[in-house]
Amino acid sequence: MGTETSIAWTTHTHNPWIGCTKVSAGCDHCYAETLNHRWGNDNWGKGKPRRVTSDANWKQPLRWDKEAYRLGRKDKVFCASLADVMDDEAPAGQRERLWELIDNTPNLIWQLLTKRPQRYMRYLPKEFKHCNVWLGMSAENQENFEIRADHLIDASVDRGTVAFISYEPALGPLTLSTRPNWQLDWLESIQKECAERGTKFFMKQFGARTPEEGAKLIPAELLIRQFPGGVE
Question: Are residue 97 and residue 204 in the same domain, yes or no?
Fold first, then answer.
């Protein structure tokens, strides 16, 4: 449940537990739920038990941290690809266990992603020892962006962390000021606004089932993959 990954914007994925409850249209056709059922488990939905992953899985980030230190780099960890760390039904005590793990891995950047950013202020510790957390939110359309964005920004400012937005799956236009009329225009518009505001822009994929296939469909001017700190 923790591994090297083909996800373009991270180095590893780590799942402290598995399971979630759908909250919006962006959760329809959830790949994680499909995998969970394919594995013969039933951890999706309100009241369903979340499955805590093995102790061996929890130890993997410690090994990644040592390797990152040896190589003199900061590796990124997407947490959690098969759950939501802001889930109200997260297993008792496991979120606190995760915060301790983050504090014990100073050479890793932990990328938290949620559709529940309003719970960041409730569940996050006041600070992390090494400031090695990025706070993210999913926003599949303008409506959910408007509902969630202020909560993300408030939490990131309060904790002094990087904030990022995952526009996936793109179910409608997502812009700060304009409203383009078809999907490629949505991307061009938000990339332009990011550039104007000094916000980093990472184009993952477009119109395909895998990042590799999708990258071939991206116009050259939009094939931009930036991280905070000037890394591209």
Answer: no
Question: Do residues 228 and 145 both lie within one domain?
Answer: no
What pTM was computed for the model? Answer: 0.76
> Is there a single domain that holds both residue 59 and residue 142?
yes
The two structure tokens encoding residue 121: 């202020």
- Name the residue range of residue 148's domain: 2-172
CB distance 88 to 48 below 8 Å: no
Tens of pLDDT, residue by residue over 128-164, are: 999 999 999 999 999 999 999 999 999 998 898 989 9
CA–CA distance, 78 with 16 (Å, rounded to integer): 11
Q: Is the Cβ–Cβ distance between 165 and 139 less than 8 Å?
A: yes
User: What is the DSSP secondary structure assignment for residue 90, as one 8-state letter?
Assistant: P
Q: What is the DSSP string of 146-193?
A: HHHHHHHHHHHHHHT-EEEEE--S--S---SS---SSHHHHHHHHHHH
Residues 197 and 154 in one domain: no
**In contact, 202 and 227? CB cutoff 8 Å:** yes
- Residue 177: inside a domain: no
Q: Are residues 161 and 191 in the same domain?
A: no
Q: Measured at the alpha carbon of residue 60, what is the angle toward residues 77 and 86, in degrees to the nearest 5?
A: 50
Residues 46 and 154 in one domain: yes
Q: Which pLDDT tens digit goes with each residue over 79-117?
A: 999 999 999 999 999 999 999 999 999 999 999 999 999
Mean of the per-residue pLDDT values of the chain: 88
* Residues 198, 136 share a domain: no
Sign of the CA dihedral running 152, 153, 157, 158 = negative
